[in-house]
Amino acid sequence: MLGSRLLENFDSALLPYAVAAVFLAFGVAYRYMVWVSAPGARRLFNQGWRSFFSVANFRKAPTALPRMIATYLGFQKFLGARSHARWAAHQLIFWGCVLAALITFPLTWGWFTFTSGTGSGPGYEMRIWGFKIIGFDSLDVLGWLMFHGLDIAAVLVIPGASYFLWRRMKDRGAITGQRFAYDLVPLIALIVISVTGLLLTFSSVFLHGGGYEFLAVLHMVSVVFTLIYIPFGKFFHIVQRPAAVGMQLFKYTARQDREVFACRRCEEPIDTGPYVDNLRATMRDLSLGFDEWAEYCPRCKRVLRGSAYLSQVKKGFK
Amino acid sequence: MMGRTIFIDPGRCIGCQACVSACRECDSHRGKSMIHLDYTDEGRSVASLPTVCMHCEDPVAPCAEVCPADAILVTADGVVQQADTTRCIGCANCVNACPFGVPKIDLQAKLQMKCNLCYDRTAYGLAPMCATVCPTGALFYGTVEELQAERPGVQVADIFSFGRSEVRTGVAMVVPADRMQWPVPGGLPVVEINGKDVRR
Amino acid sequence: MTADPRAADPRTAVPLDPSLAPPGTRAFRDAGGIPADRWRADQDGETLVPTHCCFCGVQCGMYLRVDRGGKVFGVEPRNHDINRMRLCPKGINAYQQVNHPDRLTAPLMRRSRDEEFREVSWDDALDFTVAEIRRIQQSHGNDAFGLLGGASLFSEKTYLVGKFARVALKSRHVDYNGRLCMVSAAGANKLAFGIDRAGNPFSDILLTDCLLIAGSNVGECFPVMTQYVWGARDRGASLIVVDPRETAIARTADIHVALKPGTDSAFFNSVLHVVVEEGLTDEAYLAAHATGWEEVKAKVAEYPPYRAAEICGIPVEQITQVARAFARAPKAMAWHARGIEHHSQGVENCLSVINLCTATGHIGRPGAGYGTITGQGNGQGGREHGQKSDLLPGGRSIMNEEHRRQICEIWGIEESELPPAGTSMMEMVWQMQRREIRGLIGICNNPFVSLPNYRVVKEGYDATEFHAQFDFFLSETAANAHVVFPVTTWAEDEGVMANAEARVVKHNKAQDPPPGVRTDTWVMCELARRLGAGDKFAFPDSRAVFDELRIASAGTVNDYYGITYERLEETGGIAWPCPTTDHPGTPRLFEDGRTYHPDGKIHLQVVEWHPPMDPYDDEHPMSLTTGRTVAHFLSGNQTRRLGALVEQTPRPWAELHPSHGFHNGEPVRVVTRRGSEVFPALVTEAIRPDTVFIPYHWPVPTAANALTIDALDPRSKIPEYKVCACRIEHADKIDDVPAPPVAPGQVSYPEPQIARTDPLPPTAPQGRGTSERS
Fold it and tell me: Which of A204, C42, C108, C437 has a CA between 20 and 30 Å from the CA of residue C407?
């Protein structure tokens, strides 16, 4: 309401999108609350923000957080370690979706407007919240890019999502435990959105609007569906992933203070001290009564269990 | 209660690591072995212990409970899956909370991985790779009845004690018949470490 | 809470990724042999080719997974009745050899050992080889050129090795690496029973009441056979293990006799002594089915338990316990392997076990009998068809006039052309040292790792004027040759092998050989053709060779006539003798109480124990014994290149008792009269205090066989690998394990070799735990 200057810039054709976005906001908020109220997430959430707001931390390593955000959330280097192809495909989808979101949401809420002094171009002005930001000619390169931003996003998303879909048909590792609603629906939704979006452009440019109505409805339905689906399916990872940065920052802080916790038996490092304390507290929250076990590394746990079996259950064959 | 599952008998294990190599051949995670094989009596005997995921039933999967990203899913048939690749943030909570020391973590990939009972095989009625190839039957896949038909007089136990807590698992241990009603010791409380008494 | 070693230096910044993880969780001990990105499994469709494992004598069935491009890419368990889907780590990783980057794909050649190898055409390599054979034989006689075969070859190829030596080379000097493996048992079996094979199938183990395993680390060397051992125990059988080390099966055995290496026959004589004393012999069986019992009885009377206990270094009571357990059991079985065979009295050790089984009547019944476990895949089949210096196809003797005549008729040669018996493998090396043998072709063997006393072996091979080797990886021996012929792996050709039960099984071809690689059959036939014997070697494939082998074995004890490829495919294996195509085979011998001697009796032989050939003295007070570990096979030329197996057991070690004051991983120099080497100590209570164990799969300077003695059993000519005198010393630096050789210009995967430089011993003899140092 505010951003659109009391609906003055609101485009009523985009109403369903706006409604979906409202649902999305409530859905995400609700899911987020449920998520962070579980002990594991809550404790890590608190620790992450504590590290984030720590002035001492910022002084010691002012660049750590931006670098973490860039590597984990932007370039997602960890995906490269899983597979280069999956990293490339995910980057295509990621940047495509980021671009699309940057265009769609402001347009939906009327934060961006494109106005033309002559009414129908080719000279346009882009306005954000009503203020002119840039003027351009829709026929030059910049203009083309501005008007076809969503098409570019679609072109990025389609190959990425198609690769994942193909992989889900073929790779036995991916197929194992795969669920249609969780694993395939999001990919299909992305592809439908992108393809219908591209077809809308195709229709207006080459078919003089032939089939435009139908395509627009299909496009709208798929987008609305996807937005509503975000909090409840695979796309929720978009909301969750920043927790990785919080977790990293929490461990990073402790590592800077050289608080490394070593296994009580073999003295090999397990993780940072605050992390182990945090985990033990989480386990106590969950009434898992073996939290002191967290002070031993997994190998020692197994060896101790094996020795206990040998000495207390049976030593040999019988 | 127990359906088809893995029964572990460390007394039969010869420590050959066939399970370790076989796990690597499993199509759902080719090239990566999830099973652990530890020589638990180093310096004294060649005793060994294979460890697959025990698929805890009560409490349901401590690994999943401590996961901050809800990444570990438990299927309707009680199989605790490995972390969902899209959700796992690589925090290692599951690695250090698991009382059996099962999950592994790929630090570069920020991804936990663990035994999922060869879900690609067991979902179709095949035995998991490790239990299929195990030359000794230290890892046995089937029902209790099938196990007892092959090994007259054995019993199985699916409850482990960790100090005062007990954990009931989907995967069970073979125990002598007279020990059936007791929980299998899980190693806690730790009495001594490297020859030193650590009871506080 | 301790300081993180990696953050100990305040100047080192914390990495942006601060994650730590405990040992064993943070990395996957990757199989290495194949780069991680090639490990995908795609839903592309695949073919499962039924075959058997290429490694040990159990011959487990397996499927090789072949992709749509016709390449082997994986393995799938096969429900064959030998192994019932079980596989050991070697078997699971075996397929990785097939498309391994270390494979030889072009003949290598050089005119002198000073030169580097260069890749040449097949014609150049074959012509040069034939020219050298001609030159050596013309100037020094036919016998100056020798041939050494191997027992991992298909039976067809072992048949060809024997025929090639006698018909194409016309040399008496042919032998094979089963000489290092099976010959003591073979000799004892022939002497006692007139037939050379195990008496009972594996499945009989499940029926027995008492199982005696002597000198066999079943859990590591024949892992899949363990299911039969455990199966017997599940049904109530007791288990007796005779081994100086507490191996995986000995750990839980009812009786573990940890005797001193080299004292087996004293022990078994004494057990028989107690059996006689306590009246537990089966006199009726002995009277009906055995000869020589009185002499044996008189001899074992000289071995009362107190004497044997002193010789063997074991408690006196154990001897009585073993005697009672074995003799009183309604059905008892004895199985043995290299532990009692690798001795200067290997044949006699085996005979002392046969004496015990016969005297207690435990022969030729379901669940009662005697067997030897062959170490190589075709350890049984490889010794039957004429690649042994004194044998002709069908187990015929080359000294027997009638047998010679029969074979000459089948081969179409004059009897005068058939050379006489040759010498054994180790003796041939001594002859090479003396320049009596000046040229050599080796097929499927790696004596630089597998023969004892490496110094002598190297000298012998270096003294040859010409040496050619067939292999699919460049072995340490091949790397010292003049010509190396790249040949197929087991998955690229078809053929039969006979396992430890004498069950003949068929291996199927799973993929075409890589370009440039030929079958051993093709190379031998091509060499024969160029030597002018082409008409006797017109074999297009294994099947043609097998048909001739069937005919050549017809009517003999080792009768294969009734076995055809089709029948093998239908049945999953047939145990010889199988004289006709409707004969079901003979899984169990002596069921009618008759042996294969003309009189049908078991010929008991008197055995007198004597100390090992390498005497103990103050300088060398301890026993060195050698053996295998589960992750590696024989000379390691195959397994030392497969990442998973190198990861499991990267290097050899010296296993010793804590009483010597060494701590785990400390360098320990093991000194014998032949040399000394430094290994990391694996300190464990599971070995006798007077004994040191070293696994033998690695080349110098980490070769157990640089230390072992080249003393031979006078009858079987098996070297005494299992005992020699040694001492141990503290040392500064552990000897490094060399990388396996590769052809010039070839690039190997580096991944499998990373673990090789680990200076520590494995956690246990079976290897490193999965969490160690990862």
Answer: C437
